[in-house]
Amino acid sequence: MNYRISKKMQDLRPSAIREIFKALSDPTIISFAAGNPAPESFPVEELARLSADIYAKESVTALQYGITEGYPALRRDVEARLSDRFNISMEGQTTVITSGGQQGIELLCKTMCDEGDTVICENPSFIGALNAFRSLGCNTVGVPLAEDGGIDLEKLEDTMKACPRAKILYLIPTFQNPAGTCMPLEKRRAVLELAKKYNIVILEDNPYGELRFAGEEIPTIKSLDKDNIVVYSGSYSKVLSAGMRIGFICGPEELITKLVVAKQVEDVHTNQFFQMLCHRYITECDIDAHIAGIRKLYKHKCGLMLSELDRVMPDCVKYTRPEGGLFIWCTLPDSIDQGEFIKKAMEKKVAVVPGQAFNCDTSAPSQCFRLNYSTPSDEQIITGVGYLADAVKAML
Amino acid sequence: MNYRISKKMQDLRPSAIREIFKALSDPTIISFAAGNPAPESFPVEELARLSADIYAKESVTALQYGITEGYPALRRDVEARLSDRFNISMEGQTTVITSGGQQGIELLCKTMCDEGDTVICENPSFIGALNAFRSLGCNTVGVPLAEDGGIDLEKLEDTMKACPRAKILYLIPTFQNPAGTCMPLEKRRAVLELAKKYNIVILEDNPYGELRFAGEEIPTIKSLDKDNIVVYSGSYSKVLSAGMRIGFICGPEELITKLVVAKQVEDVHTNQFFQMLCHRYITECDIDAHIAGIRKLYKHKCGLMLSELDRVMPDCVKYTRPEGGLFIWCTLPDSIDQGEFIKKAMEKKVAVVPGQAFNCDTSAPSQCFRLNYSTPSDEQIITGVGYLADAVKAML
User: Fold this and answer.
1) Contact in structure between B117 and A8 (CB atoms under 8 Å)
2) In terms of C-beta density within 10 A (0-12 exposed, 13-18 middle, 19 or more buried), how is residue A14 classed?
3) Which B residues 344-383 touch A at CB under 8 Å?
4) DSSP assignment of B236-286, as one string?
5) pLDDT at B22
6) Residue A351 pLDDT > 90, yes or no?
7) What letter would DSSP give residue A145?
8) Which residue of B has its CA nearest to A56?
9) Which positions of chain B have pLDDT values less than 50?
10) Is A72 on the interface with B (CB under 8 A)?
11) Which of the 8 DSSP states describes residue A12?
12) Where are the strands (E) in B303-389, listed by range?
């Protein structure tokens, strides 16, 4: 049998991060590679209590088929929070529960793009989104981040002009993955104007928006949008549980109604029990207090990783100082071979993600690597950063 | 804003069944339209007990990110059952846990087909699969079912010859949806030979394989396959819970390894907690006894619906006599306008699915409609069939 693989899937490789994650069955490896939330951040006791109650009182609804749009009460909760907490107007908008934030990204692309169409992305950007676009036969065209942490506006307009088949501008304006930076408010307004001018939908991916532990909050692009340009993707992975796969996508009714049809043929609907569990948690527990606890935890972990980097890492290695999210983005000096460094780190049993993984152009080189501080323990952070510094010193 | 919808999604309508399902919020409607398992078939008590134990002992694993391939212990359970119960050889095969059977179908198509490629299907066939193929820009070419309940072999070969871009042959050989029939053993062997000759992968969809309540079991096509031609899709929706969205796909390593990459960009992995719950149920409870109970229930419900049809339905309406699965397939005489009949049935508050929904060619007419017996109560079956007979009589 000669298996004929589709052109769009032929060259797509599994995410480097997910592959590293698989290699982590070796418990002696310190992983700064994942994007996992801290295990301490799962509200296990409450979820166990509410689950027992769902089995006792609503088991049939929880175990039977649901509707593709999602559990109605949870959709209402999501919209109320977007409106109250993020100042997003729900006029003309609708919300669909997705199987994690990832699914919403893939579905919007499927809804709008045919093979050969283009998605404009920040470069670097989230590998899961880049691969989703590629898996649908789309071109990912990268626009570099500027010094201020937001996308380079001039290059963005050049790209929009040059790409008539660009339909979506994919952005992670808040605690960008992998760079950890935030797009300044004025740039958010400017990006919105450009998208309007070139009739391109903005997909604002905001999985880390609740995780600010320093600095001033910046309004989401969606909250500034008066022209129905922005589709907003969010997730409960980083605040309740990643393994449950519950996210959402909110945008103009006309678009999202089409997106529902695309979801229907992918998985009919998202796990019904956990949708109900989310709803119960949001309405019966204190989610704000819970999130405040997570912020405190990550503030500590990020602070520890930064202070260790400050203490032991040679000055030639540059890194971001995030005010939220999960990641620190590091840049090696040109004198160090990045591939050799990643290998040396792995020999010392520290896993990091090489910067190439986040490039729109997969063949482009990178001097960067990404560190995660939410998953490792304090001890692992201290030991692991030490090993990374040793690896750098050995290569100078 | 002028939203540019992809060509492949532009004309795709939501599944008629899911739309009817939404309309069923009116509790006075008797629905024979869904494909829902009977609520009595959910093993609530055991799931509640095992869930509590997972929270107590393995909460971090259950709530954290998992690997895309699926929870390893559940993959082993699935393979053991495919091997022991269905006599399927696991040599050179691998299994991935999917978010319901639906996802496996969509993923295989994405892995193999580009826009403009063809999937050959039985006509009529499962609307969820047809729409999945369409959502990826594929043509669905239908081959009619023959009198024996299996696909018409001669027309199948004609179609394979005529379609060089046909990459997948999608079949539901056991309790076909919507027809309720089984493909005879000799025809299964012949189909396998044809697929080999024309280098086309068979996707054998078997969500109802465990639900035989009469007649002799027929080997799956996958169990007859010596040439790595068949990919097998299954689901726990009809035996444990539909709402949890747990299915699986098993096939040649080379293909399934690629399919994992496609799954990764759709939802990263399937709900981890429920994967673990399935594993616990399969290994700690008596799933065979549980399935035997479901079979007994459906034997009763199907028998009741058939005896009511025999008793009150005018002879001019023909219907299948299924030996398993969830559906009876009815054909109206040419003298009755099918669209009028469906409307009249709905006025009498009985919902059925019009046959057009299952046609590969969506513009083709149909004299058929599908009845489901697993969801309605005994009383609803008796009342509802009576109303349908009244509708027919009024139109004669």
Assistant:
1) no
2) middle
3) none
4) STTTT-STT--EEEEEEHHHHHHHHHHHHHHHSSS-HHHHHHHHHHHHHS-
5) 64
6) yes
7) B
8) B48
9) none
10) no
11) P
12) 318-319, 327-331, 350-351, 353-354, 368-372
Q: Provide the sign of the torsion angle of the four alpha carbons A138, A139, A145, A150, taken in this order.
A: negative
ipTM of the complex: 0.96
Which positions in chain A touch B262 (Cβ < 8 Å)?
9, 12, 135
Q: For residue A188, what pLDDT is reported?
A: 98
Task: Give the pLDDT score at B34.
Answer: 85
Alpha helices in chain A (DSSP H): 7-10, 16-23, 44-57, 59-63, 72-86, 101-112, 127-135, 153-162, 185-197, 221-224, 253-267, 272-284, 287-312, 338-347, 378-395
Q: What is the pLDDT of residues A301-350, one digit of tens each?
A: 999 999 999 999 999 999 999 999 999 999 999 999 999 999 999 889 99
Phi, psi of A193 (to 5 degrees): -65, -45
Q: Please check the confidence at residue A18 and state whether its pLDDT lies above 80.
A: no
Do the beta carbons of residue B99 and residue B246 sit within 8 Å?
yes
Return the residue matching tokens 């309720």: B180
% pLDDT > 90, chain B: 92
Distance CA B137, CA B133 (A): 7
The interface residues of chain B toward chain A in range 186-225, judged by CB-CB distance below 8 A, are 196, 199, 201
Q: What is the band of A21 on the pLDDT scale with cuts at 50, 70, 90?
A: low
| pLDDT tens, residue by residue, A147-197 | 999 999 999 999 999 999 999 999 999 999 999 999 999 999 999 999 999
Pairwise CA distance, residues B295 & B281, whole Å:
18
- CB-CB under 8 Å, B115 with A137: yes
Q: Which residues of chain A from 109 to 138 reach within 8 Å of chain B, CB to CB? A: 110-115, 117, 128, 131-132, 134-135, 137
d(Cα B178, Cα B126) in Å, to the nearest integer? 7
Looking at residue B253, its amino acid is E
The count of residues in chain A is: 396
Residue B199 to residue A4, Cβ atoms within 8 A? yes
pLDDT score, position A104 = 98
What angle (nearest 5°) sits at the alpha carbon of residue B128, between those of residues B149 and B47? Answer: 100
From the list A62, A227, A261, which residue is nearest B243 (CB)? A62
Contact A61, A214 (CB under 8 A): no
